[in-house]
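Morning F.,

Quick status update on the modeling queue. The single chain you submitted on Monday has been processed. Sequence for confirmation:
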Amino acid sequence: MDETAFQPPPKALEAIMAETRAIGFQNWCWPPVGALLRIMAALKPGGRLLEIGTGTGVGTCWLLDGMDASARLLTVDINPGVHAIAREHLGTDPRLTMLTEDAQATVRRELPNSLDLIFADGGVGKHIMLDETLALLRPGGIYICDDMKPHPPTYHESDRVADWVSSLARCRAIPERHYPGPCCPPYHIGGLRGEPAIRVAR
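Structure tokens below.
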């Protein structure tokens, strides 16, 4: 079955992917993850969304494709080279604000209980500053993260996952699905097998 026949990808995706592959950039979300982002964004009409780790704009275009006209997306990346590709293809969308900076500064500026969805696809909000990032969600807000692989020279994957799960337990979050991995408690840990993780703030 060809799912794209009735759920076509965002219009900008093909051009973004062409440039992404041309520069050898590999940190982009897979189409199933993008489709999930589109659905989650559609659940927040008029919402404020934050994407940490724009990259070349692959995840960004999926989020925008699910958003309604009154929703707003803030996306941030520290790498101006890859960010330029996202700006070229998506920068004219009035719903989108793009920042080229360290996402730690972005998270510190945002007010608690001010966001409806956070997609953490960079180090900030996932490997560091998780508590501060989750605190930005309104009740009922959605937290999604992708790619929980370790990033050298930091510590071992099992330590990272254990800390991540512990932080989620402390911060108004509940597990959406369960992942029976050998190195972690019975929570759904996204990215260990290329899957995203979803949490809903209480």
